[in-house]
Amino acid sequence: MINGQVLVRVPASTANLGPGFDTLGMALSLYAWIEMEATKDGETVIELYGDGLNGIPTNKTNLIYKVAQMVFEEAGVNIPELRIAMYSDIPLTRGLGSSASAIVGALVAANALAGSPLSEDKLFQMASELEGHPDNVGASLFGGIVVSAWDGTRAEKVRIAPHENLEVLVAIPSFQLSTEKARHALPDKLDMKDAVFNVASSSLLVAAFASGNLELISFAMRDKLHQPYRAPLVPGMSEILEQATSRGALGVALSGAGPTLLTLVDRRSARKAELEAFLLNTLKQHGIEAQTMWLAPALDGPELTTFEAGKTVPFMERIKGEVKA
Ligand SMILES: Nc1ncnc2c1ncn2[C@@H]1O[C@H](COP(=O)(O)OP(=O)(O)O)[C@@H](O)[C@H]1O
Ligand SMILES: N[C@@H](CCOP(=O)(O)O)C(=O)O
Question: Which residues belong to any copy of the GHMP kinase N-terminal domain (predicted)?
Answer without folding.
Answer: 62-144
